[in-house]
Every structure is written in C-alpha cells, then in structure tokens.
Amino acid sequence: MAGGEKRIVIAGAGSIGCYVGGCLALAGRQVILLARPRIEAALRQGGLRVSDLEGRDRLVKPDALGITTDPATALSDADVILVTVKSGATQEMAGLIKAHARADAVVVSLQNGVDNADRLHAGLGPRTVLAGMVPFNVVQSPDGELPLRVHRASDGKVMIEDGAGLASLLDVEGLSVETHGDMKAVLWGKLLMNLNNALVALSGLPLASELADRRWRLILAGQIDEALRAMKASGIAPARIAGLRPALLPKILRLPDWLFKLLARRMLAIDPQARSSMWDDLQRGRPTEIGELQGAVLGLAQRTGTPAPLLKSVTALVRAAEAAQRGSPGLAPEQVAPPGGSRSA
C-alpha cells in the first residue's frame, strides 16, 4: 500500500485524531480531518502545531491540511478511515461511514474501550474493520489559542490488527505503529491502566502527580485487582502493560513512593501537563467514557458474579460529577476510597 496514493480520513479530529492526522500529514500522507466546527475554525485560521514528549515541535500550515465538517465530503473517497471519536459516538460514526464511504474503505478503530471495533463491524456489515489501540495521552491547547496545538504527553506504540498493509502506511515520525496478533488481549490490557483515567478526572491532578502519590495508586491497584478477577472468571487474558505481566501491576502500584519511582520509570515517563481525556470531558461538560472503561469490567463482574465494589464506587462518583456539570470535583483519595477499604494492600 503506497502511502502517497491512499486517502486517509480522521473520523473525529479531536486531540488524538488531530495528533495522528498531523503526524501523517507531516509525513506526506493524504489526510482529511473530519472535525467539529470549533476545531475546523481553529485549524483554518492558524494551522496545527504537533509536539511530543521527545521534543519534536512541528507546524502543519492551514493550506497543507484537508479539513471539513461534512461527513460526505470527508468519507466519499476515503481509502482508510481512522475512527477517533469517543466511544459514545461510535454507532453514529458507523452510520455515517455506511452512508458515505466506499465499500472497500478500510476502517480502523483507534478508540478507548474494548468493543468499539465490534460496534463498528455490527454497523458496517461485511466491510473491513480492524481493532486498534492508542497507548499515549494527547493534550490539546486551550480554546482560542492559535495555532491549535496537540501534544503527545506520554510514550508508546499504536497497535493495530494486521490487514491491508496498514502498519507501513501509518508508521511515521512521531507515530509508531505496529501490528499485533491478539488485539483483544491488548485492549483488555490497556483497559487496566485506563481505569486510572477516572482517578485523574476525580482528583483534578496531572497524571504524573497522581501516579506519584501512593494513596491514589492504592485505589488504582484495588480497581485492577477487581478487574483481573472478573477477567479471569470470564476467560480473558489481558496482554502485558509496559512490559509487565498484568498480575504484577497491583503489587508495583502498592510499593512505597520512592521504590515505585525507581522501578516504574517507564510508567512515569509522562509530560507534567498530561491529564486524562475523562478529566477533559468533565471540564468541558461532556459525557465521559466511564461506561466503556469501568463499565466494561462491571459488565464482566455482573455476568460472572465477581464482586467489584471499588469499581462501582468510582463509577458512581464520575457519574455524579457528570451530572453536576462543574468540572473535576477535586476529590482527595480518602473521598474516593476510605482508608482500610478494598484499596488497601
């Protein structure tokens, strides 16, 4: 698959979508960003600034970007469609792709959660739909700042199902992409660490600061314990995370701060400004993906009769923050899980 000949559409050009699309455009790929009006206006006015944890800082000028808010314009001639919308918009995007895209377009889900590729496939029938996983955080500049900046604030390789030679098309500077033979295991492994998104959202802390505090790590470890029990009861074997066996994660998270910082350097290789997309959703008054993250594990727990009280508590707190529409509630660890509860070692 020759990169210069294929038209790549970013279906949902938010933070992740703009970063992926920006890296591809800078590498000479033909990219169309399907964006909301706010993003489209910012990109047309100032272009797209793409930066990362390794120190790259590049600008895609407005005239070098393909940008539209019209699904028909974006999708009608797409060869590859990278779906980067939030999980709650997956069904709607599947409908737009079915209505406007060619039948031979390859669709790739680059979304949080474990079943978005399945949802896309259910809505698209016999079309080629591939699962993917984005391991890193992307921070978007505040509204009104030009050029719009998307900053990759943590590390990791994007994983996709093998198909149509896509890895070579998408693997460009600033965006490492490789294939994996068991994407189900990869997605469930990623979900374990994504259980922390809610804690960042509830605390309001930057991700690096939150992970450096053992009180918060105990809550994450407790959630992962519950998730691993539910996965085991369901016959799911999650893939390694940052080179670690999933069963080791809770033990490492419970280490004293000084020892955790020493042993978990890769996990802590995060830009100081990084937070989570769930925090950003609360700040912007949008629905979060709590139902696709903690909710996915709670679904397993319910079907297998596995207790998950901490996951239920975290979910309820995020739902309350969503309903309050006041951004992050800025909770302390003790307000999320009282000392001596299921978070403890």
Model description:
- The protein has 2 domains: 174 residues, Rossmann fold; 152 residues, N-(1-d-carboxylethyl)-l-norvaline Dehydrogenase, domain 2, CATH 1.10.1040.
- Helix 8 runs parallel beside helix 13.
- The chain contains 16 helices and 12 strands.
- The N and C termini lie far apart (51 Å).
- By secondary structure, the protein is an alpha/beta fold.
- The strands form 2 sheets. It has an 8-stranded mixed beta sheet with strand order 5-2-1-6-7-8-11-12, with helices on both faces. It has a 4-stranded mixed beta sheet with strand order 4-3-10-9.
- The mean pLDDT is 94.
- It comes from Mesorhizobium huakuii.
- Pfam families: ApbA (PF02558), ApbA_C (PF08546).
- It is an enzyme of class 1 (oxidoreductase).
Question: What tags apply to this protein structure?
Answer:
12 strands, Rossmann fold, 345 residues, 4-stranded mixed beta sheet, 2-dehydropantoate 2-reductase, alpha/beta, N-(1-d-carboxylethyl)-l-norvaline Dehydrogenase, domain 2, 14% strand, 8-stranded mixed beta sheet, NADP
